[in-house]
Amino acid sequence: MSQLLPRPVQARAPAFSSREFRAALGMFATGVTIVTARGAGGELVGLTASSFNSVSLAPPLVLWSLAHAASVLPAFMTGSHYAIHVLAADQRDLAERFAQRGVDRWAGVPHTPGVAGAPIIAGAAAVFECFNRSQYAEGDHTIFVGEVEHCAHRPGTPPLLYHGGRFYTEHPL
Predict the structure, then answer these.
(1) For 150-162, what is the mean pLDDT?
(2) Higher pLDDT, 125 or 7
(3) CA distances for 129 relative to 35, 58, 85, 99, angstroms
(4) Residue 2 has pLDDT above 70, yes or no
(5) Contact 11, 56 (CB under 8 A)
(6) What does the alpha-carbon distance between residue 95 and residue 33 come to, in Å, rounded to a whole number?
(7) For residue 135, how many C-alpha atoms fall within 13 Å in the half-sphere facing its CB?
(8) Among residues of the chain, what percentage have pLDDT more than 70?
């Protein structure tokens, strides 16, 4: 009969640096999204994020995460809705713009208000309009779970991908 080991009460300290961890995470290819909302004063907010996943089909739930140091965190924490745009392969410039600091991210970007007011950027491969259902502070990020109230996609549109610090487009095998 095998003896059960006691369950640890916390994780061991990492045996790697933050740089090594980031490099290892970069080996996971992801899609690229822009998450948008309206701030308390009605101002447009948005950022590039690769931390997007489905959670549930019933109810329809998705998640994404945002660093606690992000200047737009308060807008997303207090807002009732946001939109997640899965970028198309031809939207690399938008991904780079919405990842920059100190620029007008919205200058010349065509958008319309979504069903709950979050700005919808034209040309995305898919869009998920979400009710801000729940938030979980974990480590240096907040995880947002959104309940999808409306979604749309453009069939056959190649997505923008990110891997190892570089952008890619899909190439079917």
Answers:
(1) 95
(2) 125
(3) 10, 16, 9, 20
(4) no
(5) no
(6) 7
(7) 18
(8) 99
| Nearest CA among 75, 101, 84, 91 for reference residue 33 | 84
Do you find a cis peptide bond into 158, omega within 30 degrees of 0?
Answer: no
SS3 content of the chain, % helix, strand, coil (to 5): 15, 45, 45
**If you ran DSSP here, which 8-state letter would residue 109 be given?**
-
Look up residue 40 and give its two tokens. 């308390």
Domains of the chain: 30-162 (2.30.110.10)
Instruction: Assess contact for 119 and 38: CB atoms under 8 A.
Output: yes
Residue 1 confidence class, pLDDT cut points 50, 70, 90: low
Query: Three-class SS string for 31-100?
Result: ECEEEEEECCCCCEEEEEECCEEEEECCCCEEEEEEECCCCCHHHHHHCCEEEEEECEHHHHHHHHHHHC
What is the arithmetic mean of pLDDT over 88-92? 96
Model-wide pTM > 0.85: yes
Residues ≥6 apart with Cβ < 8 Å to 125: 86, 87, 88, 153, 154, 157, 158, 159, 160
